[in-house]
UniProtKB/TrEMBL annotation:
It comes from Thalassolituus hydrocarboniclasticus. The chain crosses the membrane at residues 38-59, 65-84, 96-115, 159-180, 201-221, 227-249. Pfam families: FA_desaturase (PF00487). This is Acyl-CoA desaturase. Keywords: Membrane, Transmembrane, Transmembrane helix.
Amino acid sequence: MNQIHFSAGQRQLYQQLSAQVNQYFRQQDMTKTGDQRLYRKAILILLLFTASYAALLLLPAPWSLAAWFIHGIATALVGFNVMHDGAHESFSRSRRLNRLAALTFNLIGSNRFYWAQKHNRNHHSFTNVDEVDEDIDALGLFRMSPHQRRFWFHRYQHIYVWLLYPLTSLFWFFALDYKAYFRQKIANREFSHRLSAADHLEFWASKLLYLLIYIALPLSLSDSTTVIAGFLLMHAILGFLFAVVFQLAHIVEQAEFPQPASDGSMEDEWAAHQLRTTVDFATNSRVLTWVLGGLNFQVEHHLFPRVSHIHYPALHQLLQEACSHQGHPIRSYPSLGAALKGHYRHLRKLGRTD
């Protein structure tokens, strides 16, 4: 799987789309990274994150449980709006600020190096490719791709998946991170480079800090039952939001699941592959766009990951006609509800047929 690749020289579609996007930013005299709109939103979200954490420490039960619940939402907002742009170096023109934004992932439980390998390198390069894109690998619990083996219990996956999604972040932070760290690979693809001494130190220091912030300190101020219940409640909210938002862009009826040829080559050029495997949803909803950090514009994000999400609505209008003209129209669901139905039907179909 380390040899999987797109054919050299096949970049015509991406070059045409990129030329139009570059022209748009020149005409608008704007930077592709975030601006004051993003910074104001980031400050507001980080204030909610900080205030809800302080509340879960200081308020008595049952009010502290409400604070844990709100903190789960705030943590997801940090991931969607701050960490994600920072990890793609689109939060700011400043490398230092991008790094700080990406490091919020360490603060909320995971690791920015792992995310760069899992998300930037594997998922964005080989979206929906089995055994490379870990986002479609549920260790057999779910069948997300038609190329995966079907077990008898998958017949009910469209039902039980909603009960397991709340466990996503717990499993991610306390199992998948360590699995990747000790194997030095994501799915069946090795890391792009070996971890440095600083990377090792950052990994273990971040994991220890997370336990201190979310277990040790709360236990010093409250009883263990409240802390454990609150911690699990926070992760239930966070895990459900993370799982559902990312699934709606790729694990739906409209998305395809291409596989490489025997020599590791992919059928399409990279941009065409993204347009076949990625789906937008609810692009007319300003509220969802604000809350999800533009993750409802996944096509635009996959084609231009180093463009900040604040520009995605404008890019959507620009790229719709261009992609259709090239024979690769943008796939989209008109609403959140329609995308959820598309996800449900996809899981039900893959659970019942080979």
